[in-house]
Amino acid sequence: MEILLEIIMIPAVLAIIKIVVIVLLFALPLGTFLTLMERKWSAMIQDRVGPNRANIGNFTGHGIMHLAADGLKSIFKEDTMPKGADGFLYLIAPFFGLIAAVATFAIIPIAGPIGDFTFQVTDIEPGLLFIFAITSLSVYGAVLAGTSSNSKFALLGGTRASAQMISYEVFMGLALMGIFMVYGTTRVSGIVDGQNEYWFGSLIPMWGVFTQPLGFVLFFTALVAETKRAPFDAPEGESEIVAGYFLEYSGMRWSAFMLAEYVALVGVASLITTLFFGGYHVPWLHLWESAPQWLVTILQIIKFSVFTLFFCWFQIQLRWTVPKFRFDQTMALGWKKLLPLSLINLFVTAFVILAFA
Amino acid sequence: MELKVKQVQRVDGAKEALYLPAIFGGLRLTVSHFWRNLFGAKDVVTVSYPEEKRHVSERWRGRHRLTRLDNGFLSCVACYMCETVCPSECIHIEAGEHPDLSVEKYPVVFDIDELRCVFCGLCVEACPKDAIRMDTGVISMAYTSRHTFDFTRDLLRDSYDPKSHSNTKYEDNDLPSPKDQTEALPNSLGVPAT
């Protein structure tokens, strides 16, 4: 028993256990679940019924069996490759997006540390820079798929994805710069702890969304653009370029793209929660001083999950609300409006910090 | 008549350029729909077809049936009116002598090829004896073999029970199988079904 505990406490083993728990038990299942929920929720928004037919015997579970049906279908579908495609790149492209989406969870804390044990895979010093690195990597999946498919539509989609990534990456960084300045650290745990402070005694928590409201809007917009979802879904552009960069894919590789999109959606939601909504910190919990540690941890996990789920829902809701931007509008919005706005935000933040802190 | 022109005020300016007011306006609508439908699908108008069926009007021209007299005989006197008027030539009648001398003729064969039928209802209008009607309320016929769509006289007669008048009371699988159909054909005389 003690040997087992010692093995578990080896940092590498511990990290693997955390990865398994956070990624395989939280991010991937939630992403898979959202593929169905997007269909169900969009049906509710549009006064439809949504998928409800897949069944085993009489059990449909309000459409939950569609998850199994879709998975089985993808596995047994033929994995096609177009003539003249770049074989190697074509085959590995789907997993770039998926790996990048999953890697976001490396730095996200889902609950406060208990002693030395942290609920976070790794708490690296340049935490936010890691986010930048990973989110810009995620576009490689789209670009590689677009260039290797030997298809004009896919190439257009890949090009659009890369152009969009470049324009929105710029002010995403600038929007987060405000967070650096307010909390004075790039370490994610430091930022989360910084949001546990309060204004006016213990009235308003110093969440990122209150210290950086404009930064929140900008960062959220940039992340929605990075995940290539509506209103920034020009890279997929169903009405213009069929399905964009993953047009030629079928079967499980296509599913990998879909899964990457939804895992990225969960990643965006958890990033927003962590950086702008106090992370795992339950607001005003410090007023209850005699709270037992285990209850606090459970409450923190619940708070984190609820906020993450809420932002997953919000992104889906947003997709079914706003119309798509034309691609030139996407570019104009990014460079002409949001980039100057993020610079103004940075300037005002710096001024306020200089003047009042 | 004067042409009506509706002037739409084009919204422009800072509020529109911000996008956010418009986005939240849209979100208010979609979230309200989402929220109402989250508990009990209140706005959903979808009819889950095979399980529940839409109300079908009394005048709906559905699958045909041959009516019967009070004594159980077919009303049809094999006058060929419907076969003549049918624009898609899907009705095939062969007349025979009726055992009851007052009736004169009856259809030995009365086939309707429902695959050819365009459901125009002209046969119903042409019939002098009100012998053919399209009031069964069967709105869709979906079978797996072409053979099944050839509705013979006994099928047209027997698959409708005039005693219980209501729409959409047939299940498609209540129909006799093609095998029963062919067996029923040769020795049937239009006499009351036992």
UniProtKB/TrEMBL annotation, chain A:
Catalysed reaction equations from the record: a quinone + NADH + 5 H(+)(in) = a quinol + NAD(+) + 4 H(+)(out)
Localization, UniProt: Cell membrane; Membrane
Record flagged with keyword Transmembrane helix: yes
Matches recorded under InterPro entries: NADH_UbQ_OxRdtase_su1/FPO (IPR001694)
Transmembrane domains' residue ranges: 12-36, 87-108, 128-145, 166-184, 204-225, 262-282, 294-316, 337-356
Keyword field contains Membrane: yes
Top-level class of the enzyme under EC nomenclature: translocase
Record function comment: NDH-1 shuttles electrons from NADH, via FMN and iron-sulfur (Fe-S) centers, to quinones in the respiratory chain. The immediate electron acceptor for the enzyme in this species is believed to be ubiquinone. Couples the redox reaction to proton translocation (for every two electrons transferred, four hydrogen ions are translocated across the cytoplasmic membrane), and thus conserves the redox energy in a proton gradient. This subunit may bind ubiquinone.
Complex and partners: NDH-1 is composed of 14 different subunits. Subunits NuoA, H, J, K, L, M, N constitute the membrane sector of the complex.
Name the record gives this protein: NADH-quinone oxidoreductase subunit H
Taxonomic placement: Bacteria, Deltaproteobacteria, SAR324 cluster
Automatic annotation (TrEMBL), chain B:
Protein's recorded name: NADH-quinone oxidoreductase subunit I
GO molecular function term, any single one: 4 iron, 4 sulfur cluster binding
InterPro entries (alphabetical): 4Fe4S_Fe-S-bd (IPR017896), 4Fe4S_Fe_S_CS (IPR017900), NADH_quinone_OxRdtase_chainI (IPR010226)
Domain 4Fe-4S ferredoxin-type per the UniProt entry, residue ranges: 65-96, 108-137
Residues that hold [4Fe-4S] cluster 1 according to the record: 76, 79, 82, 127
Name of the encoding gene: nuoI
Keyword check for 4Fe-4S: yes
Membrane topology: Peripheral membrane protein
Cofactor: [4Fe-4S] cluster
Subunit structure: NDH-1 is composed of 14 different subunits. Subunits NuoA, H, J, K, L, M, N constitute the membrane sector of the complex.
Organism: SAR324 cluster bacterium
